[in-house]
Design goal:
Number of helices: 3
Radius of gyration: 14 Å
CATH class: Alpha Beta
Number of strands: 6
Shape: globular
CATH architecture: Roll
Helix content: 25-40%
Number of domains: 1
Structural class: alpha+beta
Distance between the termini: 21 Å
Strand order of the largest sheet: 1-2-4-5-6-3
C-alpha cells in the first residue's frame, strides 16, 4: 500500500462533502493512517475554533483509510459506533488525525483516533470506533 493509493481513495470512496474538507494523507504505517485537515474559515465556529462535526467526519474518514491500509484494499464497511470526546478547542492551525486499527476480525473492526494540532501537537479530540465489515 502506497501513499498515492490512500490519497486516491478519498475521491473514490467518499462523498463530495467529505472531499470538500480538503483532507490529505500525511503518513501511514501498518494499520495506522494520519490525515491533515487544513484550517479553514468554512470549518470554524465563532472564535476560529474547528467545529466538532468536521473533526468527527475527519476521524471517520481516517479510520476507513486505516482499514484500507490494514487490509491492503478497500472493504465495504459501515460505522456502527463512534464515541467522541472533545478535549480542548483547536484553532488557528491545521489538525492531524491519526487513526489506528486496534482489531479487525471477520465482521467487525475497532479503532482509535487522536486529533491534535499540527503545530502544537496537543490532543484536541479522541474517538473510538466500531465498524461492521460488509
Amino acid at each position: 500500500m502506497d501513499h498515492a493509493t490512500l490519497q486516491a481513495a478519498l475521491p473514490e470512496y467518499f462523498a463530495p462533502w467529505v472531499q470538500a474538507l480538503g483532507l490529505t494523507v500525511e503518513s501511514h504505517a501498518e494499520g495506522v493512517v494520519t490525515l491533515r485537515l487544513p484550517q479553514s474559515d468554512q470549518l470554524s465556529r465563532v472564535g476560529g475554533m474547528l467545529c466538532g462535526q468536521a473533526m468527527m467526519a475527519a476521524a471517520d474518514t481516517a479510520m476507513v483509510l486505516a482499514l484500507i491500509r490494514h487490509f491492503g484494499a478497500f472493504r465495504p464497511c459501515t460505522t456502527v459506533q463512534m464515541n467522541t470526546s472533545f478535549l480542548k478547542p483547536l484553532s488557528g492551525q491545521d489538525a492531524l488525525i491519526e487513526a489506528r486499527v486496534i482489531r479487525a476480525g471477520k465482521s467487525l473492526a475497532f479503532g482509535e483516533i487522536d486529533i491534535r494540532g499540527a503545530e502544537d501537537g496537543k490532543s484536541a479530540c479522541r474517538a473510538t470506533t466500531t465498524y461492521a465489515l460488509l
